[in-house]
Every structure is written in C-alpha cells, then in structure tokens.
C-alpha cells in the first residue's frame, strides 16, 4: 500500500514491546509508516511539548533505531513533542502522515488518567493539529488480577488498533479514538463496548473502567477541541470492530 504514511509512536520508550507489536501489525496490513518514539517511559507528561514554534521541530535532535524492521526516530522528549515531530517536515518525497497511532501502552488509560497520559497526549496533539488519531492501551489492572495478569497480549491489542485505523481515514472531521483492550482478550473472541461517560458524571470516562471489568474492549471517540465524547460515534465504531474481529 502506497501514499501518505501512518505516524506511529509510543510513550513507553523505543524498546517497549507494545510499540514493536503495533508496528508489526501495521506493517502486516501493508500501511506505509513513519515512526518516532521516546527514549524511555514518560508517564504523566503527555501534553508537554518542550517547543512552541513549529520551525523548531525541523531542528529537533534525535537518534535512529530499528523497530520491527523499520527505521524509527528516537527523541529524548515528551510524547506530544515526538508526535509533533512526526507530523512536521513534509515534502514531496516524504508526504505528511494521514493519521497517528500511539501505543500499545503498557497499562490502561482510562477515567481521570487521560489528563496526564502520554499515549493519549500524543494522540490529542495530532487531533489538535487536524489529523485523526488513535490511542491504544493494554489493560493489566481492571480486566485481570493485577498481581498476576498473565502474558501481556500486545499482539491482539495491536490488531484492534489496526482494525480501527481504516474507519478513521474516511471520517468527515478529525476524531480521536481511545481504545483500552482487556488482557483477557483472545484471538477468536472479543467484545467491544462504547465507553461513554456516565450521565451527569463530571468525574470522567469511568464507563471505560466498567467495560474493562466486564472483559470488553472499551471504545471512546472524541471530537473537537472541547474533547467531547461522541456516544453515537463510539457505538458505531464498537459495532464495526465487533463485526471485523
């Protein structure tokens, strides 16, 4: 598959197994990729960019590494800054990405955690810059015994992200999809749930925690700079993913 690439990043560091799994799943689907990662885990620093001026991005320092068979830029900077670098510097030979995927994060990004999540922050940065984005996380807390979660199924979480990718490319406006995958998922059985906020609950997206406790993939679709969660879009995407699985 040719054309504008898919930008892929993570906040767990360039060596994170979830990052490699995501790149592998997207390569298997034939998507052209542009990859960038943090040098290490950057918890609680999702939206800190470090540079304000777009022209600074062209001169940002980075190293190179190979991840799952592709070249990846590695920045000693916060995830949102890495996302901005991935979306900058377009040319005729290197067109701008058409979508950004961040993950697969080790651990859930749900409820109040979204306000400081590096994974969500990278995806949020892309949406604010006018691109569709996906934040994908693997839950090892709510869906399993946190003390003994079993083998972490990054491969299946990456498969969910790859399925969601196609649905966003034709969206009429930039969306941000937050996916939380229970570690109890299996290759032949997965259920998806629209994790919209509880009515009248101003504390956050606690509905995604409820979904994970029930062993469901939590799907939330956000639109606009006010970061409103679109219940119908969430339900439509959850249904589409269920049919595709």
- Overall, the morphology is globular
Treating each run of at least 4 consecutive H or I residues as one helix, how many helices? 7
Q: Summarize the main sheet.
A: 10 strands, mixed
String of helices and strands: EHEHEEHEHEHEEHEEH
Give helix % range.
25-40%
Number of strands: 10
Structural class: alpha/beta
Unreliable runs: 200-204
Instruction: Tell me the β content.
Output: 15-25%
Terminal residue distance = 22 Å
Walkthrough of the structure:
The protein has 245 residues and is of the alpha/beta class. Helix content is 30%, strand content 23%. It has 7 helices and 10 strands. It has helices spanning 17-28, 54-57, 79-87, 118-128, 154-169, 206-213, 231-244, and strands at 6-9, 33-38, 63-67, 70-75, 99-106, 133-139, 175-182, 192-194, 217-223, 228-229. Strands 1, 2, 3, 4, 5, 6, 7, 8, 9 and 10 form a 10-stranded mixed sheet that branches. Helix 1 (17-28) packs across helix 5, helix 3 runs parallel beside helix 4 (118-128) and helix 5 (154-169) crosses helix 7. The model is unreliable at 200-204 (pLDDT under 50).
């Amino acid at each position: 598959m040719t054309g504008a690439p898919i930008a892929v990043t993570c906040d767990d560091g360039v060596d994170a197994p979830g990052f490699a799994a995501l790149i592998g799943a997207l390569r298997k689907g034939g998507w052209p990729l542009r990859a960038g990662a943090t040098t290490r885990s950057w918890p609680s620093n999702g939206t800190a960019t470090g540079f304000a001026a777009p022209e600074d991005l062209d001169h940002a320092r980075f190293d190179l590494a190979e991840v799952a068979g592709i070249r990846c830029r590695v920045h000693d900077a916060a995830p949102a800054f890495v996302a901005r670098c991935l979306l900058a510097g377009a040319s005729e030979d290197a067109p701008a990405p058409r979508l950004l995927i961040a993950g697969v994060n080790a651990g859930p990004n749900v409820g109040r955690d979204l306000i400081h999540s590096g994974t969500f922050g990278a995806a949020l940065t892309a949406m604010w810059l006018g691109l569709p984005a996906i934040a994908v996380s693997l839950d090892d807390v709510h869906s399993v015994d946190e003390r003994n979660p079993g083998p972490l199924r990054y491969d299946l979480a990456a498969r969910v992200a790859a399925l969601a990718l196609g649905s966003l490319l034709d969206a009429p406006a930039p969306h941000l999809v937050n996916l939380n995958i229970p570690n109890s998922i299996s290759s032949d059985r997965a259920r998806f749930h629209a994790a919209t906020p509880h009515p009248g609950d101003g504390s956050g997206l606690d509905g995604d925690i409820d979904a994970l406790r029930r062993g469901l993939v939590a799907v939330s679709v956000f639109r606009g700079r006010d970061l409103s969660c679109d219940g119908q879009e969430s339900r439509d995407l959850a249904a589409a993913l269920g049919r595709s699985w």
